[in-house]
Write a structure and sequence with these properties.
Elements lengths: L2 E8 L5 H10 L4 E5 L12 H6 L1 H20 L14 H26 L2 E4 L1 E4 L4 E5 L5 E11 L3 E3 L12 E2 L13 E5 L3 H12 L3 E5 L11 H13 L3 E3 L3 E8 L2 E8 L2 E7 L1 E4 L3 E3 L32 E3 L10 H15 L13 E3 L4 E6 L2 H6 L4 E7 L4 H5 L6 E7 L5 E8 L2 H13 L4 H6 L9 H10 L13
Parallel strand pairs: 1-2, 1-6, 2-3, 6-17, 8-15, 9-10, 9-15, 10-11
Antiparallel strand pairs: 4-5, 5-6, 7-16, 12-13, 13-14, 18-19, 19-22, 20-21, 21-22
Helix pairs in contact: 1-4, 1-7, 3-4, 3-5
Bound molecules: nicotinamide-adenine-dinucleotide.
Length: about 475
């Protein structure tokens, strides 16, 4: 007999698993389909984020940062650490343990919330039926009153550098190196290129980043991007802008990469090459020809602001639809859709999705950049505060970067918070909370911030918007 559900979710990444849990919590009979197999051959929940994305990369970023600190950052504190070494297989094994704990945790949450897990590949048929094909090749069809597609994304491949997951790897392969490559090439100075480039640079690789665009971190505020480029270069990342990769040749476990830049044609040889040039939506064998769901011109599933597809009752969320490819955006879309299915009037605020790059210092922002606002003709006041003037940052010997608060010159409403520096992600979240409630720079300035904290840099930057910073000379006078 055909199994019937109120909600069937295709994909158990941070979009799909959150949607499934939320739907079940709202009293809907919910199933979630997932096929991804972990290293033990068993189905693992959590999608790219938990298995080969956000979490494993942060595990390696944290391990490599501790190594770097032990090697080069302790002496200033009077701590002597001699003979510091890195055991790369142990570092990678720790990362794998974290993945196992978290993916197992999601399975536990499914059980606790009564979500039925259907193992296999899900395909949407006509009439909100979903075909589930198991790894044994056997298929079953389930029926749903509502379907949520959360099939995610995968790395873009480029013909000049075909991934073999040995010498030329994508973001997944770059989490599995068993030793530190002497020379590491990275194609793409985006989020993944900078995070993974940082991991291996801290462990001793000579890292060259080849970026096709002439501008570094085009999505970030220009002042932040400039500071980031300066800092990462100082850390040893050789960032080549305007560098177009034209070919690669793997020879004796090395790769010779050809590229053109302002100086003409170039060749460089690397021991490993990471290709990190973006991700694309996964829609392969996902939609039957008569499913009725439309794709947009870039291959994403077409949805409106409420994540409704062209078929009533079928929704799509996360990386497979328009917007930022971020786990937290996917999760919030999942919550919104589950609530709407349950009859609530949930909406999502697409204007306040924070962005974070987990380098050191972290780079994070929410809202608009100064350049975007100027292009829109919005008059703004800007306040910045450098961590070099923060007592807490000095105590931690982590004084690089600054906080920048941008407010509407007429209303004083905060329109953007941009941070490069220690705990930037956490500080930007404070800005996001304020902005969600329509805070003005003055509101933030009037609040009591604990002393001594890094958060005081946000307080001071908000005060500086109107020339009232205490611990730095104000550029703008009251
Ligand atoms: N911390 C995070 O939030 C986080 C971490 C990892 C990934 N992600 C998401 O995953 C997605 C993929 O990340 P990503 O870093 O691969 O993509 P990205 O879009 O952030 O950066 C890709 C970069 O590669 C460059 N590029 C493209 N083709 C090139 C070529 N042929 N030669 C040289 N450079 C080229 C682009 O100009 C761009 O700067 C992004 O949407 C990102 O937001 C987010």
């Amino acid at each position: 007999m055909t199994q019937k559900f109120d909600v069937v979710v295709i994909g158990a990444g941070p979009g799909g698993y959150v949607a499934a849990i939320k739907a079940a919590q709202l009293g809907l009979k919910t199933a979630c389909i997932e096929k991804y197999q972990g290293s033990d051959g068993k189905v693992a929940l959590g999608g790219t984020c938990l298995n080969v994305g956000c979490i494993p990369s942060k595990a390696l970023l944290d391990s490599s940062w501790k190594y770097h600190e032990a090697k080069d950052g302790f002496a200033v504190h009077g701590i002597e650490a001699k003979g510091v070494t890195i055991d790369v297989p142990a570092m990678v094994a720790r990362k794998n343990t974290i993945i196992k704990n978290l993916t197992g945790g999601v399975a536990g949450l499914f059980k606790a919330n009564g979500v039925t897990l259907l193992e296999g590949h899900g395909k949407l048929l006509a009439g909100k039926q979903v075909e589930v094909t198991g790894t044994d090749g056997k298929s079953q069809v389930v029926e749903a009153a509502h379907v949520i597609i959360a099939s995610g994304s995968k790395p873009v491949e480029i013909p000049p550098a075909p991934v073999d997951q040995d010498v030329i790897v994508d973001s997944t392969g770059a989490l599995e190196f068993q030793s530190v490559p002497k020379k590491l090439g990275v194609i793409g100075a985006g989020v993944i290129g900078l995070e993974l480039g940082s991991v291996w640079a801290r462990l001793g690789s000579e890292v060259t980043v080849l970026e096709a665009m002439d501008k570094f971190l085009a999505a970030a505020d220009e002042q932040v991007a400039k500071e980031a480029q300066k800092t990462l270069t100082k850390q040893g990342l050789d960032i080549r802008l305007g560098a177009r990769v034209t070919g690669s040749e793997v020879k004796k476990k090395q790769v010779i990469v050809s590229f053109t830049d302002a100086n003409g044609e170039q060749k460089m040889t690397f021991d490993k090459l990471i290709v990190a040039v973006g991700r694309r939506p996964v829609t392969t064998d996902l939609l039957a020809s008569d499913s009725g769901v439309d794709l947009d011109e870039r291959g994403f599933i077409f949805v409106n602001d409420q994540c409704e597809t062209s078929v009533p009752g079928v929704y799509a969320i996360g990386d497979v639809v328009r917007g930022a490819m971020l786990a937290h955006k996917a999760s919030e879309e999942g919550v919104m859709v589950a609530e709407r299915i349950a009859g609530h009037k949930a909406q999502m605020n697409y204007d306040l999705i924070p962005s974070v790059i987990y380098t050191h210092p972290e780079i994070a922002w929410v809202g608009k950049t100064e350049q975007q606002l100027k292009a829109e003709g919005v008059a703004v006041n800007v306040g910045t505060f450098p961590f070099a003037a923060s007592g807490r940052a000095m105590a931690a010997n982590d004084t690089g970067g600054f906080v920048k608060v941008i407010a509407d010159a007429n209303t004083d409403r905060v329109l953007g918070v941009h941070v490069i520096g220690p705990s930037a992600a956490e500080l930007v979240q404070q800005g996001a909370i304020g902005m969600e409630f329509g805070t003005s720079a003055e509101d933030l300035g009037m609040m009591v911030f604990s002393h001594p904290t890094l958060s005081e840099a946000l307080h001071e930057a908000a005060l500086a918007v109107n020339g009232g910073a205490i611990h730095i000379a104000n550029r703008k006078k009251r």
